[in-house]
């Protein structure tokens, strides 16, 4: 599992390879989809992508925060925020990937320990 971030360019490249569109068309398609999602969320509506998750707009009430340097209380005004709620399918895939990686790490550690004992 890498720490690489999936970028707009990566999405465009995947569309290019899998659909056979030109790179320009692939980039335009990805831009259109992301623009539509942004416009929908900005208008206060939710975006649901089946087997992936939902982007929701939530209202946050006014609250009191603190300046971490001075400790002075500061009122934080009410606002709207975007949140992501993963689908159960995505949650399960993440859990499976985590468990398989953890199992592979355990297997590697076990093998390394066996090799060390054999070398003694």
From TrEMBL:
Tagged with keyword Phosphoprotein: no
Keyword Transcription: yes
CDD domains in UniProt: IHF_A (cd13835)
Region (Disordered): 96-120
Keywords: DNA recombination, DNA-binding, Transcription, Transcription regulation, Translation regulation
Pfam families per record: Bac_DNA_binding
One GO-annotated biological process of the protein: positive regulation of metabolic process
GO CC annotation terms, alphabetical: cytosol
GO molecular function: DNA binding; structural constituent of chromatin
Superkingdom to which the source organism belongs: Bacteria
PROSITE patterns: HISTONE_LIKE (PS00045)
HAMAP family: IHF_alpha
Subunit architecture: Heterodimer of an alpha and a beta chain.
Family as reported in the entry's similarity comment: Belongs to the bacterial histone-like protein family.
Purpose of the protein: This protein is one of the two subunits of integration host factor, a specific DNA-binding protein that functions in genetic recombination as well as in transcriptional and translational control.
Record's protein name: Integration host factor subunit alpha
Annotated organism of origin: Fulvimarina endophytica
Gene from which this protein is expressed: ihfA
């Amino acid at each position: 599992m890498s720490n690489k971030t999936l970028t707009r360019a990566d999405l465009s490249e995947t569309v290019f390879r899998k659909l056979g569109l030109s790179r320009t068309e692939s980039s335009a398609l990805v831009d259109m989809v992301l623009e539509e999602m942004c416009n929908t969320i900005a208008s206060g509506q939710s975006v649901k992508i089946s087997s992936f998750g939902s982007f929701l707009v939530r209202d946050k009430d006014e609250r009191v925060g603190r300046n971490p340097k001075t400790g002075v209380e500061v009122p934080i005004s009410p606002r709207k925020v975007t949140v992501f709620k993963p689908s159960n399918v995505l949650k399960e895939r993440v859990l499976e990937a985590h468990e398989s990686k953890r199992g592979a790490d355990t297997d590697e550690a076990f093998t390394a320990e066996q090799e060390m004992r054999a070398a003694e």
